[in-house]
Design goal:
The protein has 107 residues and is an alpha+beta fold. Helices cover 48% and strands 17% of the residues. It is rod-shaped, with a radius of gyration of 20 Å. Belongs to the YbaB/EbfC family. Pfam families: YbaB_DNA_bd. This is Nucleoid-associated protein HW450_06400.
């Protein structure tokens, strides 16, 4: 059995690292919209986890029922968070073979 070429192994590791960094950059630059209540509440979330927008349809604003609105906002956030997790798995999955599941960090 021949010894592996160390320079080839290093080059492959560098290529893998570059691809991983590119996938991470793409993920961070990505944006998703989570929805709840059939679109009555929407939250826009960046891949970095930053919330950039919250939209609430005036139909769900009832001063007598703040709990429902809070549940809808939470549901929209969870939907967006789950989408970011799925996006992380799609972008990072092929690169993380043999590594811990990177997508699990997001969802």
């Amino acid at each position: 059995m021949s010894q592996p070429d160390m320079s080839q192994i290093i080059a492959q590791a560098q290529q893998m690292q570059a691809k991983l960094q590119q996938a991470q950059s793409e993920l961070i630059a990505s944006s998703v919209v989570g929805e709840a209540g059939n679109g009555l509440v929407k939250i826009t979330l960046l891949g970095s986890g930053e919330v950039t927008a919250v939209e609430i349809d005036p139909k769900v604003v009832d001063p007598e029922d703040v709990d429902t609105l809070q549940d809808l906002v939470l549901g929209a956030f969870q939907d967006a968070h789950n989408q970011i997790g799925q996006l992380a798995k799609e972008k990072m999955g092929p690169l993380s073979q043999g590594m811990p599941d990177m997508g699990s960090l997001f969802g």
